[in-house]
Write a structure and sequence with these properties.
Blueprint lengths: L1 H13 L8 H9 L4 E4 L7 H11 L2 E5 L3 H12 L5 E4 L7 H7 L5 E4 L1 H6 L2 H10 L1 E6 L21 H5 L5 E5 L4 H10 L6 E4 L7 E7 L4 H15 L4 E6 L2 H13 L4 E4 L5 H12 L5 E4 L12 E7 L5 H8 L9 E7 L7 H5 L4 H19 L4 H8 L13 H4 L4 E3 L1 H13 L7 H7 L5 H5 L16 H13 L3 E6 L2 E6 L1 H8 L10 E3 L2 H8 L23 H21 L3 H4 L2 H10 L4 H5 L6 H22 L8 H9 L12 H12 L4 H5 L10 H13 L6 H8 L3 H14 L5 H7 L6 H12 L29 H10 L4 H15 L19 H15 L3 H4 L6 H9 L5 E2 H7 L5 H13 L3 E4 L2 E4 L1
Parallel strand pairs: 1-6, 1-7, 2-4, 2-5, 3-4, 5-6, 8-13, 9-11, 9-12, 10-11, 12-13
Antiparallel strand pairs: 14-17, 15-16, 18-20, 19-20
Bound molecules: adenosine-5'-triphosphate.
Adenosine-5'-triphosphate binds next to helix 3.
Family: Belongs to the helicase family. RecQ subfamily.
Pfam families: DEAD, Helicase_C, HRDC, HTH_40, RecQ_Zn_bind, RQC
Organism: Vitis vinifera (Grape)
């Protein structure tokens, strides 16, 4: 029951149809009153873990948060979800909040650590009487001196453990090393806590790096690119390392007529608050700021985060770039560095001494190495944070997607390594590079380096070219960089020494390296590296999948939302996210029930704005000549298309590639590929199909006509599947689509159909004709006849239907076994297509309704309350067909109407096509 309650509460207040990874488990443990430490990526949805329990239990959640602006944003957003939330801190101007808080009025009560520690004990005892369901410490790394944002006041929170004895303590953070983790557990005196460590991988973020020169040409191009982003309704943050840069970019944007916000530490508090406010409320779409901006900011639609200058550490880069794409939609993080940034050690070290100085230097070197990395950036980032990334290519960073030229640089590498060797590792990179470039500076003459035979042999390349080469040699282990205080020195490693010993001035072993951007710029002509280059943005994806008029409707609906937001002084995203508006623009629901079904629409939205939105949708659609209740199957396709373009060069696993090659290039059938004699063991036909569809998703060519022919998918069946998707309202899960499709449609057909849609293929590639499938009557009815072997074959070749066979098997088993809890079904469930396993169980549940019970012989009349009574008996929900069967005395349209009303009133909701009680 609790899982059901969790899901219905999630839909009711947040409008989401499912949990993100870990959320459910974490919440479950908190509900069991276990202390928990939650370490999950930025934007992964940690807040929900403390927001949901109070709604389920009806008791207050206390949340400690470091910043007042952050608490205010969260309170604003929660209120828009119909959640009673407030904050207690020095900035609270409403005197009633304290009283209401102690009498348990609020679901979520935010406090600064100072407030929590100084509030009188009587407050806690009163509130404890009505109930505190959890005590959460957000940004919990602030508790640790080892953390990067240590806050003294957080250390005092342990006092509260003795007061809130039986209240579960929950620590949440996006960054925590082992030391910090232990510190949080000890400081909060956690008792046997559950520690949840999620992946740090933000899959929807594209990471890219470019070098630049601060000149006016670069600035013009930079501003030009930013103006393209502004055309979309999403937001951009430009982070600068200095206030001077912030002001310069802000000025350039203004001169170009681009409205932007500005934020840095030297601005007055009120000016900063105003900047924060206009950005959050979408009054400006660009924010130019130092890193003082944005801690804990939860604006879901930030589509670009650009770093103008190398950040001081990878920890801060991860945090800042993590503010991008919090709604899970593909977003882009570009980092622009200038070689001068790497010399800023003194600037960052400030007054620091000893170990602290060393730590700052190490962080800066890590950030520098990230900039100069020529292999996968995501792998580098994750491994820096101690997470193993199995593949060498993520396919979603510049190094994995933008093909770079390579060439043999053995001669140049030889010169540089030999020169560094001659300097005996006592210098940084500048000295050997100056020697190679023939400098006659005083320090070179003093050291008599002008007498070296290498002096002047590297004149053909710029200093930056040589540095770019040096960093590749460092990353491949030929050279080593060491840091002494704030100074870096380079020396030759063992690998480099081996390279030298196997080389002569006339001949060196081949050494193929990448021609980096800096090298290209240098080759084209020195100094043009100020060129903006291709700032990969998403603006061009904006309307992919949208018709022009749908795009217009989307913008009109954004304006409607803005009007509401202004009217009540809140941020538009707090009303609902841009993605939800996109889905509304695509589906154009005509009823409250259809609107309620859209992901992101919660009960508060529906009751407060539902009627108005429905009216607007109707008027605007009419004016734009768009039909209502459009094709729901489009919504996921559009979102998918907004992901960065699949790259042809992305590698498939060898097994996938092999299968694709045999099928596509050698013309073998799926069955032949599966059973190819050279295989150590045959693989399943289904696996081969999965491989081929995976290859198609990666941009590999597929002969669709042949594939559809082989799996028995016809145009008519494609239309049937499309209709099923429309009925379901989503294509996220296969099972509901399968349930709504005619019986002869298999999971394989659905998968092929979805992949066709994803790849933007038209129906025309599918051969027309009858679907040539067996009917349910022609299917084998005994379990023994539906061997696994047959199942696989059926799955691929179409005519006989596995799922229906399973249905029949279960039906016959159920007839033989009165008790439906144990089904004698012995085949390996893992071998079923996704969903079949689930289906077995849902069918088992449904059997209770299907069985000809005495009750169903009495004609049941459908009313709202009799439907609610029915649903009350089934935790897993009831499909429409069973509801209709149950009320077989009532007209179908009448029952559907009643269901729609109940859905619109948020009394029931639909999940996986099953009606459930809220
Ligand atoms: N189950 C869900 N389905 C869809 N969206 C979700 C879900 N859970 C959370 N979100 C959304 O994801 C976004 C990020 O969530 P949240 O603010 O909780 O992240 P976080 O982990 O606390 O990040 P940070 O460490 O940066 O503060 C929010 O806009 C939130 O509404």
């Amino acid at each position: 029951m609790r899982a059901e309650k969790m899901e219905s509460t999630l839909k009711r207040y947040f409008g989401y149809s499912g949990f993100r990874p870990y959320q459910k488990d974490i919440i479950q443990k908190i509900l069991e009153r276990r202390d928990s430490l939650v370490i999950m990526a930025t934007g992964s949805g940690k807040s929900l873990c403390y927001q949901l329990p109070p709604l389920i239990l009806g008791k207050t959640a206390i949340v400690i948060s470091p910043l007042i602006s952050l608490m205010q944003d969260q309170v604003m957003a929660l209120k828009q979800r119909g959640i009673r939330a407030e904050f207690l801190a020095s900035a609270q101007t409403d005197p009633t909040v304290h009283k209401n808080a102690e009498s348990g009025t609020f679901h979520v009560l935010f406090m600064t650590p100072e407030k929590a520690c100084s509030i009188p004990g009587s407050f806690w005892s009163k509130l404890l009487k009505v109930g505190i369901c959890l005590f959460a410490v957000d940004e919990a790394h602030c508790i640790s001196e080892w953390g990067h944002d240590f806050r003294m006041e957080y250390k005092q929170l342990d006092k509260l453990r003795a007061i809130l004895l039986d209240v579960p303590f929950v620590g949440l953070t996006a960054t925590a090393t082992k030391k910090v983790r232990m510190d949080i557990i000890n400081s909060l005196k956690m008792r046997d806590p559950n520690v949840f460590i999620g992946s740090f991988d933000r899959k929807n973020l594209f990471y890219g790096v470019k070098s630049f020169i601060r000149n006016s040409q670069f600035m013009d191009e930079f501003v030009g690119e930013i103006s393209k982003f502004v055309a979309s309704s999403d937001s951009t943050i430009i982070y600068c390392t200095t206030i001077k840069d912030v002001e310069q970019i802000y000025k350039s944007l203004q001169e170009a007529g681009i409205k932007a916000g500005i934020y840095h530490g030297q601005m007055a508090n009120s000016a900063r608050e105003e900047s924060h406010r206009i950005f959050i409320r979408d009054e400006v779409h660009v924010m130019v700021a130092t890193i003082a901006f944005g801690m804990g900011i939860d604006k879901p639609n930030i589509r670009h985060v650009i770093h103008y200058g190398c950040p001081k550490s990878l920890e801060s880069y991860y945090q800042e770039s993590g503010r991008c794409g919090r709604d899970g939609i593909a977003s882009v993080c570009w980092l622009y560095y200038n070689r001068g940034d790497f010399m800023k050690a003194d600037f960052y070290c400030g007054e620091a001494t000893g170990n602290q100085r060393r730590a700052i230097m190490d962080s800066l070197v890590a950030a520098q190495n990230y900039c100069l990395q020529t292999t996968c950036r995501r792998k580098f980032l994750l491994e820096y944070f101690g997470e193993k990334f199995e593949s060498d290519k993520c396919g979603n960073c510049d190094n994995c997607t933008i093909s770079k030229r390579e060439c043999d640089m053995s001669r140049e590498a030889f010169l540089l390594i030999a020169c560094i060797n001659s300097c005996r590792g006592h210098w940084g990179l500048n000295m050997p590079i100056d020697i190679l470039r023939g400098s006659r500076s005083k320090r070179i003459l003093d050291a008599k380096f002008d007498k070296l035979p290498l002096h002047g042999l590297g004149k053909d390349h710029s200093s930056n070219w040589w540095k770019a080469l040096a960093y590749q040699l460092i990353s491949y282990g030929y050279l080593m960089e060491s840091v002494k205080d704030v100074y870096k020195t380079v020396s030759v490693s063992q690998k480099g020494a081996q390279f030298l010993s196997s080389s002569t001035p006339a001949h060196q072993p081949k050494l193929v390296l990448q021609v980096t951007n800096e090298m290209v710029d240098d080759e084209e002509h020195e100094g043009t590296s100020g060129k903006f280059g291709e700032l990969k943005g998403l603006a061009t994806f904006e309307y992919e999948g949208f018709s022009e008029t749908e795009g217009q409707l989307y913008h009109m609906l954004l304006d409607e939302r803005m009007k509401f937001a202004r009217g009540i002084g809140t941020a538009p995203y707090a009303i609902c996210g841009n993605e939800t508006i996109k889905k509304i623009a695509l589906i154009r629901p005509s009823t409250k029930a259809r609107l309620a079904n859209i992901d992101g629409v919660n009960q508060h939205f529906l009751t407060t704005y539902g009627d108005h939105f429905l009216q607007s949708i109707q008027h605007l659609s009419q004016a734009l000549n768009l039909p209502l209740d459009g094709d729901a199957s489009m919504q996921a396709a559009v979102v998918r298309k907004m992901q960065p373009v699949p790259n042809q060069q992305r590698k498939l696993t060898p097994a996938k590639y092999e299968a694709w090659k045999m099928w596509q290039e050698d013309g073998l059938s799926i069955e032949k590929v599966a059973n190819f004699p050279s295989r150590s063991a045959p693989i399943k036909d289904q696996t081969v199909l999965e491989y081929l569809l995976g290859a198609a998703q990666e941009g590999f060519a597929i002969d669709w006509t042949r594939l559809c022919d082989e799996v028995g998918l016809t145009r008519e069946m494609f239309s049937d599947i499309e209709a099923a998707i429309t009925k379901v309202g989503s294509r996220d899960k296969l099972k509901p689509v399968k349930i709504e499709s005619p019986e002869y449609i298999s999971y394989a057909h659905i998968k092929v159909c979805l992949t066709l849609q994803d790849c933007g293929m038209s129906k025309e590639v599918i051969p027309p004709g009858n679907h040539n499938t067996l009917t349910a009557d022609e299917l084998p009815s005994k379990a023994s006849e539906a061997s696994m072997d047959t199942m696989h074959k059926c799955l691929i070749r179409g005519p006989c239907e596995v799922e229906t066979s399973v249905d029949n098997i279960i039906a016959s088993c159920c007839l033989e076994n009165e008790v439906t809890t144990s089904i004698p079904f012995t085949v390996d469930l893992d071998m079923h297509p996704p969903g079949v396993h689930d289906e077995i169980f849902s069918l088992r549940k449904r059997q209770k309704i299907d069985e000809p019970e005495e009750e169903s012989l009495i004609m049941q009349e459908a009313t709202e309350s009799s439907i609610l009574d029915l649903l009350r008996n089934y935790d897993d929900g009831v499909p429409l067909s069973d509801v209709l069967k149950h009320f077989n005395g009532s007209r179908e349209e009448y029952v559907v109407d009643l269901l729609s009303n109940l859905e619109g009133e948020f009394m029931i909701f639909k999940k996986n096509n099953m009606y459930r009680l809220m």
